[in-house]
Amino acid sequence: MAEHTSSSITIEAAPADVMGVIADFDRYPEWTGEVKEAEILAKDDQGRAEKVRLVLDAGAIKDDHTLAYTWTGDHEVSWTLVKSQMLRAIDGSYALAPLGDGSRTEVTYRLTVDVKIPMLGMIKRKAEKVIIDRALAGLKKRVESVPRG
Predict the structure, then answer these.
(1) CA gap 57, 59 in Å, rounded
(2) Which residue has the higher pLDDT, 132 or 102?
(3) Could you report the per-residue pLDDT of 84-114, keeping only the tens digit for each?
């Protein structure tokens, strides 16, 4: 099994609000620096994305790929690669844990990327860390800036 990279952040919002932003793929280009396009190709019986095409530009990693999503309750979503031009694998997850009275959420993002071109493991881990840190910072900023009633 390939090594994964993970990081966590605390967001000043309830888990449902955080998951609402994570599940809104159409808006990813607005708050993620790397995702330039997102297109939902299939949804499950609850209306959640099952298959999503993403155009990614993460510096060293530029790709047009499709991911399959698995939703575990309301607090976790994971994904795995369906097809890609540049990637051999991209597996990840967001896990949400309510904090205190439930008005704050700890979000843990795990990611494993394997590219088709040779790349040193150290460089790959650094790229994963940059993707995770940017995604978590963007998610926090997006969730905390969305008015909730």
Answers:
(1) 6
(2) 102
(3) 988 888 899 999 999 999 999 999 999 988 8
Cβ neighbors of 77 (< 8 A, separation 6 or more) are 19, 22, 23, 69, 70, 71, 93, 94
pTM, two decimals, is 0.86
The owner of tokens 């694998």 is 89
Q: Per DSSP, what are the bridge partners of residue 43?
A: 49
